[in-house]
Design brief:
Elements: H1 2-27, H2 34-46, H3 52-65
Length: 66
């Protein structure tokens, strides 16, 4: 009986694991363009996630890398 439970559970676990991997791919954006990074930075400032000082510092850092 336990063998059947394992055989039924294994495909479900593999399917669930694949869903997690696909969902995480969108959360990571290592190759975002400079423009997108600046837009994201501005949104963070506008929503209060970062201060004006931090915004200016990070913006200068991004533009210096260019």
């Amino acid at each position: 009986m336990k063998k059947y439970a394992v055989l039924l559970l294994l495909p479900a676990l593999l399917l669930f694991n694949g869903c997690i991997a696909i969902g995480n791919r969108d959360a990571q954006r290592p190759n975002a363009t400079l423009g997108q990074q600046l837009i994201d930075l501005q949104k963070a400032r506008d929503t209060g996630a970062i201060s004006e000082t931090e915004y200016q510092t990070q913006k200068a850092r991004l533009l210096d890398r260019k």
